[in-house]
Amino acid sequence: MDIKAIVEQVVALYKKLNRQQQFAIIGAVVVVIAFISFLVVYNVPQSKDDGFRPLYEGLSQKDAGLIVQQLEKLQIEYKIPEDGTIAIRKELVNQTRMEMATQGLPQDSKIGFELFDKQEFGATDFDQQIKFLRAKEGEVARTIEIISTIESAKVQIAIPKESVFIAKQTPPTASVIIKMKEGQVLSKRQVSGIKFLVAGAISKLSIENVKVIDEDGIPLGEEDAATRAGELA
Asked: Taking the model in full, what pTM does it have?
């Protein structure tokens, strides 16, 4: 089949048509192309928001199992999209994280902030790290504010620059400033839960390096480690 000859015949035939007929053919071609495009787009599967958001990511197998047990106990629907990730209904995420924190979960998993384990390669990377840190502070603060007795919370995290000398490395620290609703107080268990929540959100941050104070600067929950462990048990 001579494609070139066929094309020449079609062009010659088209030229013999009057202007009105030519416009009609062009219009028909456009309609056909538009219809085919519509069919292609319409039949492409569209991603849908199933209403689930990650509760935790990067969990150890042990923590994942313990958290699933708690979710089933609380009758909270969950999904495990991949190893180490547990997702629940987005409207329950903050409240459930707070509940898990009061239970001392996760125990040995550090959530997020792997970005701060990387070296800085310039101002742009530094700016991104600062923005990510501020976003993490805001996310944790909003989670803390789920506690009904708290009016507002502010989280401040200090991530020291890593040293090449292991002995000189300084651990990260965090402070949480709590404004209580009038006439309300936090129990030791709640303060311990807040500390556990903050420590669990930041890589290499220990509970001992998380300080919780009220708006007057008075430390909250300064019980010793044994008491704290008893509260979380």
From this structure: 0.51
Q: Closest Cα partner for 195 from 182, 211, 181?
A: 211
Output the CA angle 31-10-40, nearest 5 degrees. Answer: 30
CA atoms of 233 and 107, how far apart (whole Å)? 12
Report d(CA 84, CA 98) in Å as an integer: 19
Euclidean distance between CA atoms 54 and 85, whole angstroms? 7
E strand segments, 107-202: 150-158, 173-180
Opening angle at CA 94, ends 90 and 96, nearest 5: 90
pLDDT tens-digit profile of 196-209?
A: 999 988 888 899 99
Element at 85 (helix H, strand E) = strand 85-89
For residue 207, the one-letter residue type is: I
